[in-house]
Design brief:
Alpha-Beta Plaits; 5 strands; 5-stranded antiparallel sheet; alpha+beta; 8 helices; 63% helix
């Protein structure tokens, strides 16, 4: 031998090789197991018949069960969310309405005193108007007032006759046909007196023409005048004119009339 002999070198080399061999063996086993497991799972997912899921291996069936469960949960969540969203929209609309109502009532509460004062004024005004409307028992007095007003203005009544009562929804109209003869100026004063009655009376369908009185014929020198000429002649020369009109007054319906009105409306329906 040319060099010195080292008896420990082979033992060290053998130990190192054994350690490396052991490490490689452990790595190969782990990778082999993982490869085998992957190949097994992959093998279970291949060749599946969708028409026969009951024949699938355990792993695909578990995956299918999990997928179906997630799908059902997602569907239930969507249905619940849709219902909840609809209820939410309804509550939002309700909130808007309540806010508007609250704002309106708040404004009314702020102006409560002035509103009460206006309410009292309206009640007083309505009461005043009711007092101006004649009742059934006041008709005779009203006719006497119209007759007295005409006589005080030197008018001669040829007709003063109450007409048929016309029932409305909440009141009744009482027409009075009248026909008077007199001077134009006196007729105007008579109309002014009627307008100042404590009761509400209106003059409708006014018609003025020349009178057939002989005195009027002698004064005018003609048998007939047009309407405009008659008015002018009556105003200027003081000839006799004839005025026809319908005086209307109004009253509230009594209890029996209101009951009859309600029954009539119910019968029409």
């Amino acid at each position: 031998m040319n060099g010195p002999f080292n008896s420990q070198a082979p033992h060290v080399t053998n130990a190192t090789q054994a350690t490396q061999t052991l490490n490689w063996t452990q790595m190969d086993v782990g990778e082999l197991l993982r490869a085998m497991a992957g190949a097994k799972w992959a093998g279970q997912l291949k060749g599946l018949d969708p028409q026969k899921p009951q024949e699938w291996p355990a792993l695909p069936r578990c995956l299918l069960l999990v997928a179906v469960g997630l799908g059902v949960l997602a569907l239930l969540w969507w249905v619940w969310l849709s219902t909840t969203y609809g209820a939410y929209q309804a509550e939002v609309l309700k909130e808007t309405q309540l806010r508007a109502e609250f704002q309106s009532k708040q404004n009314q509460a702020v102006n409560l005193d002035s509103l009460k004062l206006q309410r009292e004024q309206v009640f007083q005004y309505v009461t005043q108007l009711e007092q101006q409307l004649p009742s059934t028992s006041d008709m005779g007095m009203l006719l006497a007032d119209i007759n007295q007003a005409g006589q005080s203005r030197s008018l001669q009544f040829e007709l003063l006759r109450p007409g048929q009562v016309a029932l409305r929804d909440y009141h009744a109209e009482l027409p009075i046909e009248l026909k008077v003869i007199g001077r134009f100026h006196n007729m105007g004063l008579f109309a002014s007196d009627v307008a100042q009655f404590s009761r509400i009376v209106t003059l409708n369908n006014l018609s003025i023409s020349t009178s057939k009185d002989p005195q009027a014929k002698d004064t005018l020198g003609k048998d007939a005048y047009t309407k405009e000429q008659a008015v002018v002649a009556g105003a200027d020369k003081g000839v006799l004119l004839t005025m026809e009109a319908t005086a209307k007054t109004f009253r509230y319906l009594d209890a029996e009339e209101l009951k009859a009105q309600s029954l009539s409306k119910a019968g029409k329906k």
